[in-house]
Predict the 3D structure of the following.
Amino acid sequence: MRILFITATRLGDAVLSTGILASLVRRYPDARLTIACGPVAAGLFRNVPGLERIIVMDKRRFDLHWLDLWRACAGRKWDITVDLRGSATSFFLRSGQRHIMRGGRRPGRRTDHLAAVLNLAPAPLPTVWITQAERDGAADVIPAGQTIIALGPTANWEGKIWPAERYTQLWHSLQGHHPQARPAIFYGPGAQEARLARPVLDALPHAIDAGGRFTLTQTAAMLARCALYIGNDSGLMHLAAATGIPTLGLFGPSRASEYAPAGPRARWIAAPGPEGAAPMTGLPPDAVAHAALSLLEDTTP
């Protein structure tokens, strides 16, 4: 059996789609999987069981990337095609079953919309596939025997970013309750991510620098060793939740009702004001600290 799984360009949406991908892996354990996604998300799927190929879709003018995808897939008969991009490409491929998610934004949890494509209820939680070698390597960065609290001060656009000085204030509040805790600063590759993380790294010189130079699955392995993750609405927030660690997402001009972190121990807090229009500067550090400490207490054995 061959399955074609067409998923997101953005990391956060790709992570959210892993729940239904995992359900396909469980349902068809001998299937051979081809996954089409954007370059930012490609590393997320490198360890998926039954993976045959990852097709990286580089966006091209006039939507020619869809023609590229058709050319890459048209020579094969697919038993199942799952298209979460709602593209026309899926209709021009030979496929026994087609499960296509219609495009456009709509209210409600994104995970519920994804699950509906395969008629799954309740929506399966996202997951991430991590190798033992990646877990072993993570131990070299995130040490055992300490309470490591991960901070995610970056995002893909400025409006979703809680000010860097608020993270410093938050850390001092957390340290008053957990004096032995140590921060780890997570951020993605590239100059912009490094620029956004730098003020927090400079303000917390004892922090672990856990960003910029790791693959997505290596990052997931490091996150899995942390006691708690606190960060802006971003792909890293969704990745943290998918590892199963306690995760607190910070929201302002994005909608938690749609994109709240989905995980067994995930919560969110939003700045006061209209959903999707509240400035991140309105989110006070003491409120975030209270939510984080409550989450940590509720999830500590």
Notes: The mean pLDDT is 96. Residues 132-299 form a domain with the Rossmann fold fold (CATH 3.40.50.2000). The CA atoms of residues 132 and 221 lie 9 Å apart.
